[in-house]
TrEMBL record:
It comes from Callipepla squamata (Scaled quail). It holds the Pfam family HEAT_MROH2B_C. InterPro entries: ARM-like, ARM-type_fold, HEAT_Maestro, Maestro_heat-like_prot. This is Maestro/Maestro-like HEAT-repeats domain-containing protein. SUPFAM superfamilies: ARM repeat. The lineage of its organism: Eukaryota, Metazoa, Chordata, Craniata, Vertebrata. Residues 54-300 form the Maestro/Maestro-like HEAT-repeats domain.
Length: 301
């Protein structure tokens, strides 16, 4: 319809908008789905429909029907496709909608959060840097638990979003560096994830994190060894990563060891195997003056 019936759309949109308040879930779902998809076409811009359709989607964020909330967020994310030049103007509102979606409390399977993370990744390159920086830490902390979700889509989307967020970390470099360190072990272990799309997401996120880590050797390793088209010799790679980590951040040893210990009970066998290897390489490369950080009794037990 966007391609072939543009002039008729304003009347159709005008007829559908009242349906968004219908008492019937099925009608609200149908109207929201139509308007959400319409936002992926530039025709909404040409016909001066963008603002009214966007406002309609924003208004559905508290809808009692979960599917309506998911579709509304999808529509707002579609603005990045249909009218990317208008994203900056509405940046604060769009960003607030995505953050609210991630914080949705009535979402047992995290479908709203998944849509919010996917849509935010689409919007990020068009948003004003200062708008993103204001929410950067909140988003990074909020998405971190999804890295280990049982649902591969949530793992992939949250890790890709984390990688995209690193572009905005310059203004608050130290605080975001802490978030990188919090997620580093998880991202490195999930290079052994059973799902190829999650491995691909981890490679991307680590390549994006590299320049923010203040270690040229580590950055080069991530860029050269974690290319999408390149297979990875995981043991050799981790040996070298641990060498750089212990040269640049020896004071991090205990923290890295403790995070790895958590994965000894992982449900994924390859990750369960990678964690003790990770610890072994860390201990191998740490200098004598930092060995005291390791609680050997805890490690051996």
């Amino acid at each position: 319809m966007a391609r072939h019936a543009g002039p008729r759309l304003p009347l159709i949109v005008k007829s559908l908008i009242p349906t968004l308040s219908s008492a019937f879930d099925s009608q609200r779902v149908t109207a929201t789905a139509f308007l959400a998809e319409l936002l992926s076409s530039n025709v909404v811009n040409d016909l001066i429909l963008l603002e009214s359709v966007m406002d309609s989607m924003t208004g559905r964020q508290k809808d009692p029907c979960l599917l309506v909330r998911v579709l509304a967020l999808r529509g707002l994310g579609n603005v990045a496709v249909g009218a990317p030049e208008k994203v900056r103007k509405h940046g604060a509102k769009l960003l607030a909608s995505m953050v609210n979606g991630m914080d949705d409390r009535d979402d047992p399977n995290n479908l709203v959060a998944l849509e919010a993370m996917t849509s935010l990744s689409k919007l990020l390159e068009h948003l004003e840097e200062r708008d993103v920086q204001a929410m950067l830490l909140h988003i990074a902390i909020r998405i971190r638990p999804f890295f280990d979700s049982e649902q591969p889509d949530l793992r992939r989307s949250s890790i890709v979003l984390f990688g995209n967020l690193t572009k905005f970390s310059e203004g608050d470099c130290e605080a975001f560096f802490e978030q990188i360190l919090n997620g580093l072990v998880t991202l490195l272990l999930h290079l052994q994830d059973p799902k190829p799309e999650v491995v691909k997401a981890c490679k991307f996120a680590l390549r994006m994190c590299g320049p923010n880590m203040g270690c040229e050797g580590l950055c080069d390793m991530f860029l050269n060894h974690l290319r999408e088209d390149r297979s990875l010799h995981y043991g050799e790679f981790m040996n070298n990563v641990c060498k750089h980590l212990m040269q640049s951040y020896p004071e991090m040893l205990n923290r890295l060891v403790l995070t790895n210990l958590f994965y000894f009970k992982s449900t994924w066998v390859d990750i369960r195997a990678a964690a003790p290897m990770f610890i072994g390489f860390l201990v191998l490369h740490v200098g004598e003056d930092h060995c005291h950080q390791v609680d050997l009794e805890q490690l051996i037990s």
